Amino acid sequence: MIRDSGDLLAKLKALRDQGIRLAVFETPPDPERTRWCTSSRTLLRSSFGEDSEHFKAFTPDGGSSFWAQKCVGVLESALESIESGFLTSRDKLIEADVFADLLGMAEHLLSSGYRQPAVSLGGAVLEDGLRRCCLRRSITISGQDDISSLSRKLFDAKFLSGLQMKQVNYWKGTRDIADHGQFEELGKISEGDIIAMIKSLPGFLDSLP
Fold first, then answer.
1. Contact 109/121 with Cβ under 8 angstroms?
2. Which residues of 74-113 are buried (b: 16+ CB within 10 A; e: fewer)?
3. pLDDT at 73 > cutoff 60
4. Taking a C-beta distance cutoff of 8 angstroms, is the pair 37, 70 a contact?
5. Is 126 found in the same domain as 29?
6. CA nearest neighbour of 43 among 58, 30, 21
């Protein structure tokens, strides 16, 4: 599934332009017509889903100018959806579901007495959420970036407030204690604080642009 909206826009525009050229023919010529139809339907299915209106509306090869014009309209509609933020909104919903499952696992670990893996998992979810936010906002990152550098980049770009940075730094400190196996220090952190961290993460990540 394509997650880069810029890449998706470029591909859709290229297919739209190709369709406009084909639609001038009463019977668009093969094999270009077949390639265009197949490529368009594959891209719409992978990007919007098989049950989406965009994919359903782009019917299999009709072989006529009228059919090609209709399908060009479908691609135009898909472009408008992407430009209005459809892909970002859908991806954030998918991310929220994944994060909820992982944080539910962290809560289960904590309730079973496994503090260290619970905190480490919560920290991993936080770092991944920050990384995804940077990518959505076209902020340059590398595999070496961690919670500190990712949050700093978001703060510098004005996507995080000072209060949010303070909260992230506290969570990072807790995560570092767990990851470094500092069990004595981890024992000083109350279970209530760890629960609060895990339960606060979904709302925090959902607030990221």
1. yes
2. bbeebbebbeeebbeebbbeebeeebeebbebbbebbeee
3. yes
4. no
5. no
6. 58
Q: Measured between alpha carbons, how far is 107 from 150 in angstroms, rounded to an integer?
A: 25
Residue 172 CB partners (closer than 8 Å, separation 6+): 123, 126, 146, 147, 148, 151
Token couple for 193? 């604080």
Distance of CA 72 to the CA centre of its chain: 27
Same domain, 137 and 59: no
Q: Are residues 108 and 203 in the same domain?
A: yes
When the pLDDT of each residue in the chain is averaged and rounded to a whole number, the result is 84
Task: Record the pTM.
Answer: 0.56
Instruction: Output phi, psi for 36, to 5 deg.
Output: -60, -45
Judgement on whether residues 13 and 79 belong to the same structural domain of the protein: yes
Separation CA 104–CA 118 (nearest Å): 10
**71: containing domain:** 5-84
Handedness of CA 106, 108, 114, 115 (dihedral sign): positive
Q: Which residues contact 25 (CB under 8 A, 6 or more apart)?
A: 65, 68
Q: CA 167, 173, 178, 182 torsion: positive or negative?
A: negative
CA-wise closest residue to 181 among 120, 94, 124: 120
- Checking if the pLDDT of 207 tops 90, the result is no
